[in-house]
Each structure stands twice: as structure tokens, then as C-alpha cells.
Design brief:
Blueprint: E1 6-10, E2 15-19, H1 21-34, E3 44-47, E4 60-63
Antiparallel strand pairs: 1-2, 3-4
Length: 68
Amino acid sequence: MDEPRIRVYGSATEITVAGNAAGLLELAERLVGLADPELRSGYHEHLDSGIDLEDGSISLILERDDKL
């Protein structure tokens, strides 16, 4: 499988999360991990440009919020 690649970009009214198949699977695994019953509300992960995301992406925070 290819290297995971994810890009996040957007405007004031819309955000796009784009990725290749490996990137989308990685993102899905992170989201499933946030649903782990051992994690508490407020647990979050930061995905940053050039590290977890493609260069030029806007940063993304994935957060568990059990109040929703």
C-alpha cells in the first residue's frame, strides 16, 4: 500500500479532508481509536501540516466529546 497522505484545506464556510486510500484508512483508525471506551471526553489528537498532514494543510484536531 502507498504511503498515507492526507491534506486538509478550506475556507470560512467549508473544510475538505482529502487523502489517498492509505491516508483515509489511517484517519479512520484514528477516529475508531477515539471511540475506545477507556478514553475520556476531551481526549484529542493534533494532526499538523508537514508531520501528519501534507505540507500546506491546515491543522486538524480530532476530539472526543461525550456531551454531543
